[in-house]
Amino acid sequence: MALGKAPPAPGETGLGVTALDVSTLETYGTHTLVLLRHGESEWNLENRFTGWVDVDVSEKGAQEAINAGRLMHEANISLDIAFTSYQKRAIKTLNLALEELDALWIPVTKSWKLNERMYGDLQGLNKAETTQKFGDEQVTKWRRSYAVPPPPIKDDNPYHPKLDPKYKNIPKKQLPLSESLATTIDRVLPFFRQTIAPQLRKGKKVLIAAHGNSLRALVKILDNVPEDKIVGLNIPTGVPLVYRLNRNLKPVELPGHAELISGAYLGDPEWVQAKISGVKNQAKAR
Amino acid sequence: MSKKATLVFSRHGESEWNVANIFTGWVDVDLSEKGLGEAKGAGELLKAEGLKIDVAFTSYLKRAIKTCNLALEAADQLYVPTNKSWRLNERMYGGLTGLDKKETVVKHGAEQVQVWRRSFDIPPPPLEKDSKYHPSNEAKYKALDPKDVPDTECLKDTIARVMPYWEEAIVPELKAGKTVFVAAHGNSIRAIVKMIEGISDDVIPGLEIPTGTPLVYELDADLKPIASPLAVEPLKFGRYLGDAEKIKAAAEAVKNQTKVG
Description:
heterodimer, A: 286 residues, alpha/beta, 11 helices, B: 261 residues, six-stranded mixed sheet, 37% helix, 10% strand, globular
């Protein structure tokens, strides 16, 4: 962190108002699962479609990750194992959050199955320019429909995943050229069932640090959110979303749970609500 | 066609207690600013060498884990699967843990401290179980068999708990011809290097492993090391990446940490 930088105002962090504590949480259900969406990336700043492109977290995004760790620490959350994607913005978010929790030593499994939705030929394009080119209606369809993917990435596109060494071991027919939320769920679900669920069943407390759409996929799987609702469900960045599951891995509705879902966000409820609504936060004196 | 494997060690860089000149062992101190830079530098050397890591191993201690993460990130390989084990931890320093190195020399004499630091089989006095530094107080060691949680270690003890992990976890990857990155500590690296290089019990305690500088081994299909013309005595097989003069100077600096006056 740069010296001389003013610490974030209390209203900006959600810290200091512990609405949920793990001791309360543990009276609901049996298993703990925490979801964490990474914060601001460099291409968020540039307003570019990202998808599988491996951009870094911004300074602010790194701070969001540290803050998320502090929120979990405040709620006395302890963790046994973590999962994340192949993308550095999620991996770095995970590592920064774990460090705040003094849990850097826990086992971490990385998988492309938790990657962000692959954005096809839109990857790298500026959002405003794309809207100008294709029209608002078409772009909204690509962004917010359940099953309509963006155009597949062209063979000569510099952001083609075949050019990325991290995907060299993925069989060609599994490597997506474009994804909708539906097809994202198709590759998240088996991973959850085969790799994550067994850890939960063993009683491990799990953290998943991932992306907007791979987390939407998980929330849909857990809470059976309808297709028309999941597309618009905003999972705020940098706010740990805590789930308690019963023995059958069905979520138990938590006090203070967010709309449409059983899980509850950590942090000052007003701050959380503002983040969900995407409203710019007014720093509050405490 | 024989499968050649590559094994790369990186000893973590300067920690906060290196700066304060305090015996560390299993205490989970952070890297200093300089140490963070050394980790990044190690990764840049990996990248410049064109090394494509398949799997990484590190300890339970954050100074090694952060070195691992920062090096992989600098080499554009942060996605590489990484396994952590307490068995790759630094030697546990017993009752010297938390003590200032130079003060300890003044108190016990340079010779005694040299024995505790650099003997093969004489451990420092045990750490009291009620010490705030005792690992049994930490969540990270709760799952260990209590008899595996040390009160002190000599290098021989460290080797005895490193090598089972080498056999079970690291060797299978090397046998599969993988490029393996091990980001760890002076003594856990000494344990493995001793075996690879065939270094004797009385020479190994004095082998200085420079920090932040990747040490590379090429192994044949039988995991026999292949000699390197770039190896620096007493190593025959391992070569360091980076500037040769810097490497020599760095090894000297570690040796001088207990020089009084």
